[in-house]
Amino acid sequence: MKRTLLLLLGAWALIGSAQQVTVTSKTPLLKGVEAAFYPTLNASGDRLLYSDVDAHGLKMLDLNTQVITTISDQNGAGFDAKWSNDNQVYYITSKVDEKSRLVFRTGMRYNMKRNTSDVVLEAQHGAVHLETGTKGMAMNGEKHNFATNPNRGVSVYTTGSQLVVNINGKENRYTPIESYAGYLWSSVSPKGDKIAFYAAGKGIVVTDLQGKVLAQLGNYEMPCWYNNDYIVAQNASDDGYQYISSQILLLKADGTFRHELTSKTSMTMQPTAGGGKIAYTTIDGNITLITIDINE
Residue 246 forms beta bridges with which residues? Predict the structure, then answer.
């Protein structure tokens, strides 16, 4: 039995060592222009959303022309902005009511062709969750909801310690792993067959569409799909007051491979991926765009 186990471990070691990842290009973005946080690449990797450190306002950088477009100057707009499958931008703004002192959130959609934003979900008190689907978008509020279409393919969002999976308009809720502090950063793989999310205290979890755990990738944050087999994530540590280290990792979605794209001392964070490209920022707001080669 011991010999068999050693042989299996040796086989996995050989498989892991056979994989090589090379950073093939590295390009600073917005250097000398402004600090940028919450970067989000579109699916084709030619446009990048970003905001300031407080998620006030939302801007877009065209990576081909280097033209910067201001999408919104409202509070909260940059915190969780997302691209739809038809290359429009969905985001949520927040405003404190002067009388009640309650926070009201409004769902917005930016039309790339018209260069204007429209309200798609009227202001309401309470959380509003953005839901990215393989064929459409949705916003889920405590009182009102919005969806581009009922059959929006596979989409997902989290609320508390629940993973909410919508398949062509039919919603199911799962708790794949215990996490009393809740789930964050859920997304569907490009082929629409897997889901990745972060469970507080447990790390990144990959499930099938029925909430069955396929892999646990480690106690890392902010997972995003590089392609259908690999995930980019943030590995950060702090002392309870400030970051001590932070780096960007490439993880295989089945949990068999891990590669450091940046060093722990680089203080790199908030990864995003699209079109075969990866972008991330630093604690000081310096965005870098890289490309990689995976040799399996």
Answer: 236
> What token pair was written down for 98?
């002067």
**What's the CA gap between 138 and 130, in Å, rounded?**
6
The type of residue at 127 is: A
Region of residue 84 (left: phi > 0; alpha: psi -120 to 50; beta: else) = beta
Separation of alpha carbons 255 and 133, rounded Å: 24
From edge to edge, which strands make up the β-sheet containing 137-141? 145-147, 137-141, 128-133, 154-159, 162-167, 170-174
Cα 226 to Cα 25, 65, 69, 165: the distances in Å are: 16, 24, 25, 21
pLDDT tens, residue by residue, 164-219: 999 988 999 999 999 999 999 999 999 999 999 999 999 999 999 999 999 999 99
Q: Please, are residues 140 and 131 in contact by the beta-carbon 8 Å criterion?
A: yes
* Two tokens, residue 152: 């929006």
